[in-house]
Amino acid sequence: xxxxxxxxxxxxxxxxxxxxxxxxxxxxxxxxxxxxxxxxxxxxxxxxxxxxxxxxxxxxxxxxxxxxxxxxxxxxxxxxxxxxxxxxxxxxxxxxxxxxxxxxxxxxxxxxxxxxxxxxxxxxxxxxxxxxxxxxxxxxxxxxxxxxxxxxxxxxxxxxxxxxxxxxxxxxxxxxxxxxxxxxxxxxxxxxxxxxxxxxxxxxxxxxxxxxxxxxxxxxxxxxxxxxxxxxxxxxxxxxxxxxxxxxxxxxxxxxxxxxxxxxxxxxxxxxxxxxxxxxxxxxxxx
Length: 287
Fold this sequence. Notes:
Layout: E1 10-13, E2 19-28, E3 31-40, H1 41-59, H2 61-83, H3 94-99, H4 105-125, E4 127-131, E5 137-141, H5 143-159, H6 166-178, H7 193-199, H8 204-218, E6 224-229, E7 240-244, E8 253-256, E9 259-263, H9 268-276, E10 281-285
């Protein structure tokens, strides 16, 4: 797709100067539970910047992409025109280059540069393109990239859910996650897990990613996938986290790509409604 040819538990929370200590307490079937996690101000600032960057990209994908690529493409045009023989086509403007895609050497060189800059821009903005039904520009958060970026910061939190049996760990994770208020599903906004923890609120894809990062520390040999309707745009909603059924974890089983998976977040009834309505589901591997 060419992106811009036409438009350039109860929660106890205290905040210190150097860090934000978070504590959760609840009564579990396994007894009284207490989880504590300290978020550094540096990590919170980085998470805040990432949230702002994602929000801008989700709401203004064309403008955000152009801000990353425009000057680079202009520079490429200058160089392409410099090496192009005088009797060959020379681009007068970026708009002309974008409107032309043929077998001429200048056009081939331009679109090679475009594809490279586009890939770099998507990576920097933490988004991936998607195909909307009305063929308008569509982007989603790059959940896999966000997943890997969060693993280090959330390791101390994940370790507190370690139990002798992985099923006990998952149960505690689900209990803890259920005590974070869900809020409204938002497609034009994504809150990274650190911000979600500080704000004590997360919608379905934010909860799914948060649990995925923590569970990957506890059961790294089992693949985790995010599932959501294929017509989702922006921050996908609703979304659910699933794990391969061979993990042996208890829970509702759904078939994805003709393979059984266990639903770890969300409501089975919501998934079945979409499947019964023949809404196609996207199954995205996180690692």
